[in-house]
Design brief:
By secondary structure, the chain is α/β, with parallel strands linked by helices. The protein folds into 3 domains: about 150 residues, 3-Layer(aba) Sandwich (Rossmann fold); about 60 residues, Helicase, Ruva Protein, domain 3; about 90 residues, Zinc Finger, Delta Prime, domain 3, CATH 1.20.272. The protein has 15 helices and 7 strands. Strands 2-3-4-1-5 form a 5-stranded parallel beta sheet, with helices on both faces. A two-stranded parallel ribbon has the order 6-7. Helix 4 packs parallel to helix 5, helix 13 runs antiparallel to helix 14 and helix 14 packs antiparallel against helix 15. The longest helix has 19 residues. The model has no long low-confidence stretch (mean pLDDT about 85).
């Protein structure tokens, strides 16, 4: 199970009503569970939005107190070879469930990490043991799952948590942990979490260790991100053709916050859309972000690429 926070386990949902931000998905899955009959399920979507939690809720609702004996969880990023499917999965799938539910559940997390050979073996296992076992597969990228597996599953696509749901989670955790969180800190938590509840809980826990009062500054520090105001000021300096000041401020931000070049480019790309600047300037900046990000991924020196990025913005600043 992918969890790095004690709070992630502490606040993990135990009932369908506790799954936030995935209303349509939850209602359909709940109908399957209530009928005591369901197909194989394939959950896809970004990290930290409730895929693993919903799988555990399904097991709890179906099997009650005996859910651990009827539920096998494997993380495919750790155990991704064909032997796992041939041995662990088959051994569990071939035995009958304990209780009045006619099938067990095997939950394969991050199944997009399975090798193609393992996915082919999984396809046959899903077919052969469908009377005694149901599979719940979870992935971040559905395109990495072979078509024969996709065709055997009911596919549900998860989305990042909307702001109102993230705010409810922040409020609930803040009340239970006795935290003071001002409005600026709440907005910062939403921005750095990007709809990822697990990341949100990790950052809140880290901030709470230092102080029961969570501030905007603490949030960005724990998230290893620069303040949006600093990023926007760098862009404004570059657009005004003050290259030296923009470069100095960028280097200061990178050194003080221990940011990589890719971190900076991603923050610039995110910040520029909300700036009050000409639409043409936004287009040029986004284009240059793409070029700089590509070169850094390919192995180019990040400082050279960031300076080139600022120079390109400065040159086109008055156009």
């Amino acid at each position: 199970m992918e969890t790095t926070s004690v709070w992630t386990e502490k606040y993990r949902p135990k009932h369908f009503s506790e799954i936030k931000g995935q209303g349509d998905v939850v209602s359909k899955v709940k109908a399957f569970v209530e009928s005591r009959n369901m197909p194989h399920l394939l959950f896809s979507g970004p990290a930290g939005v409730g895929k693993s939690s919903l799988s555990l809720v399904i097991a709890r609702e179906l099997f009650g107190d005996s859910w651990r004996r009827n539920f096998l969880e494997l993380n495919a990023s750790d155990e991704r070879g064909i032997d796992v499917i041939r041995i662990k999965v088959k051994d569990f799938a071939r035995t009958r469930a304990i209780g009045d539910v006619p099938f067990k559940i095997i939950f394969l997390d991050e199944c997009d990490a399975l090798t193609k050979e393992a996915q082919q073996a999984l396809r046959r296992t899903m077919e052969n043991y469908t009377t005694t076992c149901r599979f719940v597969l979870s992935c971040n990228y559905i395109s990495k799952i072979i078509d024969p597996i996709q065709s055997r599953c009911a596919i549900f696509k998860f989305k990042p948590l909307p702001k109102e749901e993230v705010m409810k989670i922040i409020e609930r955790i803040g009340e239970k942990e006795g935290l003071t969180i001002d409005e600026e800190a709440r907005d910062a938590l939403f921005e750095v979490s990007n709809g990822d509840c697990r990341r949100l809980e990790n950052i809140m826990q880290s901030c709470a260790v230092l102080s029961k009062k969570i501030t905007k500054k603490a949030v960005y520090s724990m998230a290893a991100m620069a303040k949006p105001e600093s990023i926007k000021e760098i862009i404004r300096l570059a657009l005004s053709r003050d290259f030296i000041s923009a470069r100095k401020m960028l280097l200061d931000v990178m050194l003080n916050e221990a940011l990589s070049g890719l971190d900076v480019i991603k923050q610039i790309q995110s910040a520029v859309t909300g700036m009050d600047i000409d639409d043409g300037a936004k287009l040029r900046i986004i284009r240059e972000c793409g070029e700089a990000e590509f070169r850094m991924v390919e192995g180019s020196d990040e400082y050279v690429q960031l300076e080139s990025f600022l120079a390109s913005i400065a040159v086109s600043g008055d156009k």
